[in-house]
Specification:
The chain starts with a helix and ends with a helix. The protein is of the alpha/beta class. The chain is globular, with a radius of gyration of 27 Å. Strands 1, 2, 3, 4, 5, 6, 7 and 8 form an eight-stranded mixed β-sheet that branches. Helices cover about 50% and strands about 15% of the residues.
């Protein structure tokens, strides 16, 4: 009888140990599956702010591409492009545009004062466009204004606007003065919109007065703001690739 009891106890301990090991194994498998299902479980609550000011040049393109890569690497909640520019090099703007379009995190173009010419293309590439009440966007006729450059840039503006669900004809009218839009722009004029006009035409997503307003729009009011600045090499590159200096 005693031997039977010992055997039963031993068998129960064996079953209990097997059950414990099975439970641990299940917990491990659940943990692994959660990690696989939620690859961004460790994402930060940072919002990256990238300044696009002054002339658009290849040095600025390098800085913005580096900043966007850092935002992606650190799994930022969003990227805010603070824009105030008269424009610049189209090739640099296209490089920036392509990088922004390919982002898989929210991007916002915040037009603090103006996004003209190449700056308008950059703004159009963002998922959202917000403007200060004193801001403006457009004035993108290329120089030289020949048929080839106008055609290429008009298509770039229209396709970028279309990819973000914005009126492509309005975007094209910022480049090509031959485009007429009833009650908006006549022939032989280049379109530039102020904030109120852009809102009425559903070309932008809102009017805000500061970065806090942008964060509220994104429902990220409690996010940590991280500013990314150009490094010394990018500043040197900006100087030597500035259209005025490089010529």
């Amino acid at each position: 009888m005693l031997n039977n009891t010992k055997r039963n106890n031993k068998r129960h301990r064996g079953v209990s140990e097997e059950f414990t090991l099975l439970t641990i194994l299940i917990i491990i498998l659940i943990f692994i599956s959660v990690i696989n299902i939620h690859p961004f479980a460790n994402e930060t609550k940072e919002v990256y702010i990238i300044s696009i000011k002054g002339t658009i040049d290849l040095g600025l393109s390098s800085y913005i591409q580096r900043a966007l890569e850092e935002a992606l690497l650190n799994r930022a909640k969003a990227v805010i492009l603070e824009i105030d520019t008269f424009g610049g090099r189209v090739d640099a703007a296209v490089q920036i545009r392509d990088k922004i379009i390919s982002l898989n995190i929210p991007s916002v173009a915040y037009i603090k004062n103006r996004a003209w010419s190449a700056g308008a293309l950059i703004a159009l590439s963002a998922e959202y466009i917000l403007m200060d009440k004193s801001g403006s966007i457009g004035a993108a006729e290329p120089q030289p204004a020949n048929e080839k450059t106008i055609s290429a840039l008009r298509t770039e503006f229209a396709s970028t606007a279309l990819s973000r669900g914005r009126p492509e004809k309005i975007a094209a009218a910022m480049v090509d003065k031959d485009i007429e839009i009833e009650n908006i722009i006549g022939k032989d004029k280049i379109l530039t919109l102020n904030a109120e006009q852009a809102i009425k035409l559903n070309f932008v997503d809102g009017i805000v007065s500061d970065i806090e307003g942008v964060l509220e729009f994104l429902t990220l009011g409690d996010a940590k703001i991280k500013y990314i600045y150009p490094n010394w090499a990018e500043n040197v590159s900006r100087f030597v690739t500035n259209p005025t200096v490089s010529s």
